[in-house]
Amino acid sequence: MIEADPDDNKFADCAIVANAEYIVSEDAHFRILATFPFPKIKVVGLDEFLADLLVDI
Questions:
Q1: CB 41 within 8 A of CB 12
Q2: pLDDT tens by residue, the chain, 57 residues
Q3: Please, are residues 22 and 44 in contact by the beta-carbon 8 Å criterion?
Q4: I want to staple 22 with a disulfide (CB 3.0 to 4.6 A). Which of 7, 16, 17, 42 is the partner?
Q5: DSSP conformation class of 46
Q6: What is the CA radius of gyration of the chain?
Q7: CA 16 to chain CA mean position, Å
Q8: How far, in Å, CA of 12 to CA of 40, rounded?
Q9: Looking at residue 14, what is its pLDDT?
Q10: Are 26 and 45 in contact (CB under 8 A)?
Q11: Is the Cβ–Cβ distance between 11 and 23 less than 8 Å?
């Protein structure tokens, strides 16, 4: 899926298998995942992740 950096595919695969809500990464290579309709993998940056955590507290 991530042709620009194939080593990143293991993280996308893990997120799919784990049925994760999202991947937290600042790596620009993961942006390609937003173009795939299925499986849908949301990628968020650290700031968005931390803001999401603070809302849940």
A1: yes
A2: 899 999 999 999 999 999 998 999 999 999 999 998 888 889 999 999 999 888 866
A3: yes
A4: 42
A5: H
A6: 12
A7: 10
A8: 10
A9: 95
A10: yes
A11: yes
> How far is 44 from 30, CA to CA, in rounded Å?
9
Residue entry with tokens 């507290």: 57
List C-alpha distances in Å: 13 to 2, 21, 29, 30, 44: 11, 13, 14, 12, 16
Which ranges of the chain does DSSP label H, i.e. alpha helix?
Answer: 9-17, 46-56
Confidence (pTM): 0.79
Comparing CA positions, the residue from 35, 42, 36 lying closest to residue 20 is 42
Q: Partners of 17 in the beta sheet?
A: none
Cis preceding-peptide flag for 6 (omega within 30 of 0): no
The pLDDT of residue 50: 93
